Structure prediction request, 83 residues.
Amino acid sequence: MYHMNKASVRDLRYNFPQIEARLRAGEEIEITKRKRVIARLSPVRARRRRKMPDFAARLREIYGDKVMQVSGAELISEQRERF
Prediction:
């Protein structure tokens, strides 16, 4: 391997575990072929998992224990019949 941030196509093929370790360490690596940069590998940024809202709790907060006379499915089917 050349420098800290470069690796050749051959290095990818034969020394991938070392390159993978550098990626996991957060390093961005330029891939070269015949001493020309052809690509850049960068580590995946960790995504924050967003917590899903508690829709049932929201409905209880809005409507309480009130039971609706017509269900949402019935309202939708009525709207579809009109068109």
Observations:
- Residues 72-82 form the longest helix (11 residues).
- The mean pLDDT is 87.
- The beta strands are 6-8, 29-33, 36-41.
- The chain has four helices and three strands.
